[in-house]
């Protein structure tokens, strides 16, 4: 069997209001980018069964905008340990997942480092290693259970950033 992982960095957030980092929401560009990524996921039938998201406002909002564009109703789980989570924390969340297609929505630098560590071969895309806002990696794993997921075993299916979709 094959499991599919979709790694999404949160969309562009606002710096307008003077509140704490955890409470920052998306700006208009971020909402547009998240909608474009959701549309792209739907058009390519990259449809998650489960989405695990950091509990920060910008990741929750990114998740909500993408799910609206998908037109599906995946299970959504908010995880506090994904807020600025490092690769080990993201791997821990992934290894507990139950769906066949699972999305993780998190923050840099952790999600970029995790993306680099999880794939056998990086995609041929100039933005992969800096993983800009709303960057999205789709990769497959030849496993039956997410508990079997290990570094350097993901086979890249696709990678996109919102500017690619404009």
TrEMBL record:
Coiled coil: none
Alphabetical list of Pfam families matching this protein: His_Phos_1 (PF00300)
InterPro entries with a match to the protein in the record: His_Pase_superF_clade-1 (IPR013078), His_PPase_superfam (IPR029033)
Entries under PANTHER family matching the protein: OS09G0287300 PROTEIN
Protein known as: Histidine phosphatase family protein
Organism: Octadecabacter dasysiphoniae
Lineage: Bacteria, Pseudomonadati, Pseudomonadota, Alphaproteobacteria, Rhodobacterales
């Amino acid at each position: 069997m094959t499991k599919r992982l979709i790694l999404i960095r949160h969309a562009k957030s606002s710096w307008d209001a003077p509140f704490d980092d955890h409470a920052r929401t998306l700006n208009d560009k971020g909402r547009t980018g998240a909608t474009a990524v959701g549309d792209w996921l739907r058009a390519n039938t990259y449809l998650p069964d489960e989405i695990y998201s950091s509990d920060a406002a910008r990741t929750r909002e990114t998740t909500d905008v993408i799910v609206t564009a998908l037109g599906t109703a995946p299970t959504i789980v908010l995880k506090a340990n994904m807020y600025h989570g490092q690769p080990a924390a993201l791997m821990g969340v992934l290894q507990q997942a139950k769906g066949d297609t699972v999305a993780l929505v998190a923050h840099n630098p952790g999600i970029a480092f995790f993306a680099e560590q999880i794939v056998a071969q990086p995609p041929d895309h100039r933005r992969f290693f800096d993983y800009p806002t709303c960057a999205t990696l789709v990769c497959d794993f030849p496993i039956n259970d997410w508990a079997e997921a290990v570094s350097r075993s993901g086979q890249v299916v696709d990678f996109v950033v919102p500017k690619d979709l404009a």
